Amino acid sequence: MTYLSELFASRELFYNLTMRDVKGKYRRTVLGQLWSLINPLATMLVYTLVFSFIFRARPSVGDPSGLDIYALWLMTGLLPWMFFTRVVTGAMTSVIGSAGLIKKVYFPRMHLPFSVAGSVGYTWAIEMAVLTIALTVFGGMPLIWVPVALFFMLMLTFFALGLGMLLAIGNVYFRDLQHFTTIALQMWMYLTPIIYPLSLVENQAATHGQWILDVYRLNPMERFVSVFRELLYDNRWPDLSDSLVCIAWTVVMFTLGFLVFKRSEKRLAELL
Q1: In this protein, which residues make up the domain named ABC transmembrane type-2 (predicted)?
Q2: Does pLDDT of 70 surpass 70?
Q3: Given this model, what pLDDT does residue 252 score?
């Protein structure tokens, strides 16, 4: 409890670090915060062109929303994934990136990865607001499901933070880890049903064996993406098993990351 009290007592530092990241991200750019919308929109256009028009990917119609727009279906999975990767990679490099500050003064080092999540969450809120408006305009009813989506977004935040804190400590000892992580996240994305529907994997499992789907669904991000799609695109309660798996992964990953980071942070100054 002493460490948690220390974190809470220095919450102003968390706020200042978060705002530093928010303000510094697009400093001296002409479009400023608009880049937080342009980047996912550009990604959406590329994936929509390639997978919807060229490869003819056709996800099922939203049930019961009735939505049948690939771009919106894509974004309900892509935005949580982009949030996840930004938090993980940002948290992983937050310690090394603040080496000078760590060597000069003591403060709870955990504020570094936490502030990354805060600044990424600020950007995500803008993106999600635009997506909610678009879903509503095209006939969906996402507003009533936003509170539930925010709860699972909080779960995703702690899951990403737990993994990010583990990688942050590992990155101090093994600097190549950040490059391996970049490659791993690229592979992870294509192993998650973001740009293609889960039904494609289910069809392959029906042909080649149920074990394919069982192994595939061990991926925690597959569960998170399914939950967000069911809430925002389908407009219905997510599958209970998916919800419980998301919560379980969050508890395990954040607890592990928190304990490892807390145990290692006192030596960070000398290791850096």
Answers
A1: 31-264
A2: yes
A3: 97
